[in-house]
Write a structure and sequence with these properties.
Number of strands: 9
Helix content: 40-55%
Number of helices: 10
Structural class: alpha+beta
Strand content: 5-15%
Bound molecules: coenzyme a persulfide
Order of helices and strands: HHHHHEEEEEEEHEEHHHH
Radius of gyration: 21 Å
Length: 389
């Protein structure tokens, strides 16, 4: 992602258009996205038309080159709609573009950035059946064979897996674990490569339409030019750097969706009457509304602070982890309060409060669980302390 981004006027105009698009096109399309378990084709075409998949492609490769802080404002807006829409585009604009920008060869950038600008759905394949938090423990193997690599393994819970147009696959290029996790390398693999197949859409607790699934590699033979950056052993660091940005994006998603959830709770509270008056007049309901507003404001401040630092080119691993933990934990609390404010109706599937409750739960899990991120934060605190004494 660029450090400068679009000029303020152009960006503000784009954000206004996007806000309208989210409310007028995405929100009304939610029932269809749930029914089809993916973004409906016509909406996907409109998202591509708006260039949403290539927003962060750097200007020197023909993209608008949004800066990190601008990009996160986009995510805050998209996340007002059901997660399906953000999920389809944000792997391309987030983790994938970051990984390509930071670590791809020139040839890879020239091959893959145009695909993103054309709206390619992409996938980041790190997690496996036996490795989630312990991402360096992956088993997928890439073995060099002349000018080729041959990959074998299974990737699990891969966002957009069943619909990917290309995949960034993390695999081990050494059977043994190496210091600094240098046994992990990244590979760019187009869909349709023989031996690469995808599983069914996973059945999940929530987030209907935001699809995940297995990506299976059976003797997938790719030219050595598919090795990310052309160097073995750099994949883990690429993944971690890309995940720093990914965590900011998940935080923005959790905040954007929390705004929607709170708006829904507030509307219901002003309409629903009990004891002869709207329940928004009762102080215990007001406390739930107010606490939610306070937390959203705090999370927005954290996000914008970390985003500005990232846009200045600073490493934000610790603060990205802080805001991801805070915003994801917050979103589940706000969704819980929303159910409480809806009361009996909140437990019924026909009201949106029930869906919000299920949808938000995963924010505390994916792209780093709260517990792994606590480890990341504490480790960096100890390191800073040791360096200071
Ligand atoms: N930016 C740049 N470099 C980073 C980095 C970051 N954010 N995080 C780690 N590194 C580097 C380290 O500096 C180290 O390099 P050196 O050997 O040159 O010093 C190397 O990567 C190994 O780092 P570390 O020793 O911290 O790795 P660990 O094996 O201890 O793993 C955790 C760290 C557990 C934090 C990591 O595996 C992790 O984040 N797991 C969660 C993964 C995840 O989010 N999965 C969700 C699925 S992806 S959708």
């Amino acid at each position: 992602m660029s450090n400068t981004g679009l000029d303020a006027e152009t960006f503000d105009a784009f954000l206004d258009t996007l806000k309208r698009f989210v409310r007028e096109r995405l929100v009304p399309a939610e029932p269809r996205a749930f029914e089809e378990d993916f973004v409906p084709d016509d909406i996907l075409a409109e998202m591509r038309e708006m260039g949403l998949f290539g927003l962060t492609v750097p200007a020197e490769y023909g993209g608008p080159g949004l800066s990190v802080d601008q990009y996160l404002e986009v995510i805050l807006e998209i996340a007002w709609a059901a997660p399906a829409f953000r999920s389809a585009m944000a792997i391309s604009t987030g983790i994938i573009t970051t990984a390509l920008t930071l670590d791809a060869t020139e040839e890879q950038k020239r091959e893959y950035f145009p695909k993103l600008l054309n709206g390619a759905i992409s996938c980041f394949c790190l997690t496996e059946p036996d490795s989630g938090s312990d991402s360096a423990g992956l088993k997928t193997r890439a073995v060099k064979d002349g000018d080729y690599y041959v990959l074998n393994g299974t990737k699990r819970y891969i966002t957009n897996g069943p619909k990917g147009e290309f995949y960034l696959v993390m695999a081990r290029t050494s059977a043994e674990n190496l210091p600094g996790n240098r046994h992990v390398s990244g590979f760019l693999i187009p869909a349709g490569t023989p031996g690469l197949s995808v599983g069914k859409h996973d059945k999940k607790m929530g987030q209907r339409g935001a699809i995940t699934g297995d990506v299976i590699l059976e003797d997938v033979r790719i030219p050595a030019s598919g090795l990310l950056g052309g160097v073995e052993g750099t994949g883990f660091k690429t993944a971690m750097k890309a995940l720093d940005g990914g965590r900011l994006s998940v935080a923005a998603t959790a905040i954007g969706y929390s705004r929607r959830i709170l708006a829904s709770a507030l509307k219901y509270a002003t309409e629903r009457k009990a004891f002869g008056e709207p329940i928004s007049g009762f102080q215990l309901v007001q406390a739930m509304l107010a606490d939610s507003r306070i937390e959203i404001y705090a999370a927005e401040c954290m996000l914008r602070d970390a985003a500005k630092a990232a846009a200045r080119g600073e490493r934000v691993s610790t603060n990205a982890a802080c805001v991801k933990v805070f915003a994801s934990e917050m979103a589940t609390k706000i969704a819980d309060r929303c159910v409480q404010i809806y009361g009996g109706a909140g437990y019924m599937a026909e009201y949106e409060a029930e869906r919000f409750y299920r949808d938000t739960r995963v924010y505390r899990i994916y792209e780093g669980t709260t517990q792994i991120l606590q480890v990341v934060i504490a480790k960096s605190m100890v390191k800073e302390f040791a360096a200071a004494v």
